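agent> fetching stored inputs for the calcium ion docking request
agent> found them:
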Amino acid sequence: MKRNILIILAMVMAFPMIGQDKGKNDIRLSNKEMANVLYVMGQIHPDGFTLDLNTMRQPTEGLMVSYKETQNSFSSKSIQKVLKHARAHESYVGGWRDPETGLYYFDSNRPFAEDSLAAALAFARENEQMIVYSNKFGISVKSNYEQKDIRIIYDCDMGSSTDDLFALMMLYRYMDMKRCTLLGVVVDRMNRANADAVDVMNNYYGYPDIPIGLEQFGVKSPRVFIPYHNMAYARNIEGQPLFKRTVGDDGEYMDGYKLYRKLLATQPDKSVTVVSVGFVTCLSRLLQSGPDEFSPLSGVELVQRKVKEIYLMGGVFGDSFEHDYNFTAAIDYSLKFFELLPKDIDLCFSPGEVGDPLYYSAKQIIEDLSWTDVHPIKWIYQFLVEDKFQKMWDPLAVINAVEGDEAIHQVSQRGWVSLTPTGETIFTPDPKGNARYQLPGDAEWSDKLLKYIRLMTIQH
Ligand SMILES: [Ca+2]
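agent> prediction call returned; pasting tokens
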């Protein structure tokens, strides 16, 4: 009996990465022997483990959610109950140690495919579980979030870096999970091709009717990192358009600031969250606007009444010497934005240095989109760039806006931010201030955040 347990443990330890062998194991263990194995597994893996009882392997793919029925099963005594449940269900047992109490918990797990995060989260919520665990990425996704009425206008400089596309992808995923409503997308980089790219994304991700606005008088000839503006017009070998669009070649886009006015006018007071990950040109023109067909209010009055908070990708704070791009590239608009913005609107800045370590390589992007041959972001990496990486700056503002400060490594104390004519952002601490900024995380935090974004990429 002892020999069997030792053999099994040696297998589990020697081949933890081989999870594909679905055949049942030849060595059959009694409940008592299996309980011993699980107990020892817990001792060997203080940070947790998952074991497929059929293969005696630790799975390397899939999402895991614990069943409510085996909740609060800790110590060796409860293993039999967990084992019985697991054998009657999918035969997965997980173990983890609660760092607060020091108790080691065992539970019966239900597996989900790695690309079924929304379903796994829904099951976790039904089962009152706090997390969904990804075997592939080794990260936990919080499931016990509060479902809030978050109404977002996403304002981006689509058409240069691909992080704007990934941040938009995250917003669709959050909508799939009913965590926010995307009211509209404002493109603050001129050229209708950039708005057409958003039209493609809306259609690809199943939200074809989200309105799109486009900047008409913004930054002249801004820097372009990856010239993907022709993505919307890609065709297959037969000459047919690859991607569906709603607006199409003949349609028109409303001026960006006008779309802001139209959307804000119909929203409840203090209900709108703006996520601005490009230039603030449309926001600046909105603040300078007067009454129109959508609202009798001036731009400043409309923003003051309807906008609750703004998450901004940009700014340089603390010891960082990095040059800010988003504010300085449109400095006249940026100065007006800071001057006119009502002081009671909350601001949270995501400086470049927070997203700098989140390198999403072209190879990983292609790999994570291997579930399809035709995808707008994949197209860019297949045909325009081969080996560039992309720093995931913009998704950090989106994650913060939807999931709150706890999803970010740390945010600064409150204060006021002002902008100098040379583009410096000056932070003055004050508990009554309207602004805070994200602080960079350590390597482990950055790695986990990138894996979280990758997990969102593989959903479909
Ligand atoms: Ca951007």
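agent> quick read of the result: Residues 443-457 form the longest helix (15 residues).
agent> awaiting further instructions
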